[in-house]
Specification:
4-stranded antiparallel β-sheet, disordered N terminus, 204 residues, 5-stranded antiparallel β-sheet
């Protein structure tokens, strides 16, 4: 016995997430055929929902990746800091050029950015005093920013008769990832005699 089916049409509204089944079955259509038509429709609806969710996840992933850290290229980090401002007026005019220039490379942050610290000193009487300090990124690193600042711990690390000025400066880093942001600082201690100490690092 032949079963005559005029049409079985599936209408899908992807924007509203609503699917409609419109089936026109002529005389002689069995319940089994109706059940199979419904199952086929449900399978199609499920597939469309999965594809929609996959597309949404891909969009979210692309947006997340776009928000990840950029890459910094080798360049000076901020401006050179003039340390003479912390000295008495009688000591603020150093010899030109500075008497001594020192360099020290150190790692900064979780990706160990290579940062070169440079500082100068000059003599006055029996003492050695700090002129300036600067920082420079030596190689590319996947950070959003690096900053130089927060001079602290200014003191005389020598003696009263032969003073040697010393200070501490911080290099701050900021890194943006897919799920969260990270930041911190690396401390760098130095003096007018050329001594230096790296660390400690601290998270923010």
């Amino acid at each position: 016995m032949m079963t005559d089916i005029n049409a079985t049409e599936v209408e899908v509204d992807t924007k509203g997430g609503v699917c409609r089944l419109r089936a026109t079955l002529l005389k002689g259509c069995t319940k089994e055929i109706e059940r199979r038509a419904v199952l086929v429709t449900i399978d199609r609806i499920t597939l469309i929902q999965k594809l929609t969710m996959m597309r949404l996840w891909l969009i979210a992933l692309a947006a997340g990746l776009a928000a990840c850290s950029g890459e910094l290229q080798p360049a000076p980090i901020g401006k050179e800091l003039d340390l003479r401002q912390y000295l008495p007026d009688t000591l603020r005019t150093p010899a030109t050029p500075p008497d001594s220039t020192f360099h020290q490379e150190m790692p900064v942050g979780p990706d160990s950015a290579r940062v070169e610290m440079t500082w100068t000193s000059f003599p006055r009487g029996s003492g050695q005093f700090l002129g300036s300090v600067s920082a420079r990124l030596v190689s590319p690193v996947k950070y959003d920013s690096l900053n130089l600042g927060h001079i602290s711990d200014l003191k005389n690390s020598g003696s009263k008769e032969r003073p040697v000025a010393s200070a501490r400066v911080q290099v701050a880093w900021f890194k943006r990832t897919f799920l969260f942001h990270r930041s911190g600082v690396m401390n760098f201690s130095f003096d007018a005699g050329g001594s230096r100490s790296i660390g400690p690092a601290a998270a923010r």
